[in-house]
Amino acid sequence: MSESNRAMITQAMILAAGKGTRLRPLTLETPKPLVEVGGQPLIVWHIKALKAAGIKDITINASWLADKLMDTLGDGAQYGVTLHWSVEEDEPLETAGGIFQALQSGKLRDEPFILVNSDVWTTYDFTQLQEYELGADQRAHLLLIDNPDHNDGGDFAINNGLASEQPIGDADKYTFAGISVMSPQLVEGLASGQPAALAPLLKQAMIKFQITAEVIKDNWIDVGTPERLTQVNEFIDSKGVDNHKGA
Question: C-alpha distances in angstroms, 162 versus 65, 143, 154, 205, 214?
Fold first, then answer.
């Protein structure tokens, strides 16, 4: 397929249903995605960066303090995008369950999408994923990073471009950055309304050589604790964000 005819990814999903328990008491009354980082809500960095990459169709799943999240972000018009809300009414459905519900309800179209955890902050340019094309049997392409102190054992290894749970030989393990290109086929067959984790599905697909991965070197931090929230704000204060697509 020529470059001019190659299908581009036109939608994304941001995972925003978690309770953010490690950031309490801050998240008792503020949804974690709305915690301020560098002068704006954490999730807004992703929305703006996706928009800069040409992704204007964004689905967000919400559960904990969902009304506050939706009231603040609205339909996305203020950011030049269209936001589709997939609300998980009682308890969060976990990552795979949340994706499945968004697909079932039509909030997320049945085609590949960029998946982003709302609680990470990164300078990565999503344009690189917007142009990514999944193969016919490929279920996901994962972005990995060098292991941070809080996950020094890593999550996945890469062997000849394929992701695996365990390394082959002396290959290193890396940490999943919470950013990927995903096929809806990965969550096929899940039970409606039932929580389901993403990691077991990824590991099953890895056994079938259906998951690829790459290591990125961009600035990245999981804003999961008060200490790391301070860390990312100090980074922004000292380094600036003039070149960040979400600034």
Answer: 38, 12, 16, 11, 9
